Amino acid sequence: DTAVSQTPKYLVTQMGNDKSIKCEQNLGHDTMYWYKQDSKKFLKIMFSYNNKELIINETVPNRFSPKSPDKAHLNLHINSLELGDSAVYFCASTLTGKGVETQYFGPGTRLLVL
Amino acid sequence: DQQVKQNSPSLSVQEGRISILNCDYTNSMFDYFLWYKKYPAEGPTFLISISSIKDKNEDGRFTVFLNKSAKHLSLHIVPSQPGDSAVYFCAASSQGGSEKLVFGKGTKLTVNP
Question: CA A97 to CA A94: how far, in whole Å?
Fold first, then answer.
């Protein structure tokens, strides 16, 4: 039973295409995140949703649009892919309001834009 | 601007010895610190954390030390085991929670048998 799962695990696509990455958590958490790990290995937050509402939106191009159909899912849609979008994207989740909160990460989606 | 810095990209240690991974931060608003461990092709997994009201937290072979005045924390693993070989990320947040984690670049630990 995978707690936080992402699909696909690998994604190779051409510049200019539109693609989506899906994330699901079965932990009963109420907050989900998308992180990007670039070629320099920095892991940076992109978005955070709490109970399907956007609460964190770092400086991310409009081409990236997260969608949360319910508390257990947070998908990431990317329009007009660019070479610089190549990275590993991690989904994470946590349960808020219980004091100190630990984020649980998915296995990552390796995106390569050619 | 790197608010969380892990200046050693890699560390190699002999099995059974102590591994010490270091992390520095610049934002004095950070009040909660975490260490995550990451194996290749997997997501980071939570290892241990410490609140700014403490200076030490221990969990089995893992101990995290926090020096607030120096804005420095370290993770000690003793004794080190080959299975500990992974990339270790230091992360920090403010307001006592992990709502927005700021990560360091990671340190790759190799424990040699």
Answer: 10
Query: Could you read off the pLDDT of A44-102 as tens digits, one per residue?
Result: 999 888 887 888 778 788 899 999 999 899 999 999 999 999 999 999 998 887 655 68
CB distance B93 to B101 below 8 Å? yes
Indicate the residue type of B54. Answer: K
CA distance A6 to chain B (A): 10
Across the interface, do A100 and B103 touch by the CB < 8 Å criterion? no
Question: Residue A17 has which token pair?
Answer: 């295409």
Helix (H, G, I), strand (E, B) or coil at A85: helix
Where do the DSSP E strands lie in B26-106? 30-38, 45-51, 56-59, 62-67, 72-77, 86-94, 102-103
d(CA A75, CA A19): 11
3-state secondary structure A10-68: EEEECCCCCEEEEEEECCCCCEEEEEEECCCCCEEEEEEEECCEEEEECCCCCCEEEEE
Task: With beta carbons under 8 A apart, name residues in chain A contacting B49.
Answer: 100, 102
